[in-house]
């Protein structure tokens, strides 16, 4: 039995026109990939401002469901609930500017919890 040995060495094109076409093609591929990734990211992760506004509205609706919500006086629709990883409103935990935990026990709140308001905040854990 005879073994055939093959080896292949890549030789880049030396013709300037071919080099230009190879580089142009590589740049085009990079641009197409960048556009696809950018559009996908925009669709999957909408604007943080829109998310914060929606979270604020949902949390204000939750606050309205409580009687005597004096402990939540700093829940104010004119101020976002999160500032990065820091919660600006009592009883919240935030990660990257989004509400991840609502922890209201021990605040003396009474009333029925508006579960729909909580369900409207997709980043809650």
TrEMBL record:
Residues 53-94 form the Leucine-rich repeat-containing N-terminal plant-type domain. Keywords: Leucine-rich repeat, Membrane, Repeat, Transmembrane, Transmembrane helix. The chain crosses the membrane at residues 26-48. It comes from the Eukaryota. This is Leucine-rich repeat-containing N-terminal plant-type domain-containing protein. It comes from Nymphaea colorata.
């Amino acid at each position: 039995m005879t073994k055939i040995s093959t080896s292949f060495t890549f030789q880049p094109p030396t013709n300037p026109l071919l080099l230009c076409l190879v580089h142009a093609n590589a740049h085009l591929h990079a641009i197409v990939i960048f556009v696809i990734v950018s559009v996908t990211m925009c669709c999957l992760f909408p604007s943080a401002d829109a998310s914060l506004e929606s979270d604020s509205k949902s949390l204000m609706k939750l606050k309205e469901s409580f009687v005597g919500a004096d402990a939540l006086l700093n829940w104010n629709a004119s101020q976002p609930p999160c500032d990065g990883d820091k919660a600006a409103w009592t009883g919240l935990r935030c990660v990257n500017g989004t509400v991840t935990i609502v922890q209201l026990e021990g605040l003396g709140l009474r009333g029925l919890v508006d579960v729909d308001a909580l369900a409207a905040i997709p980043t809650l854990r």
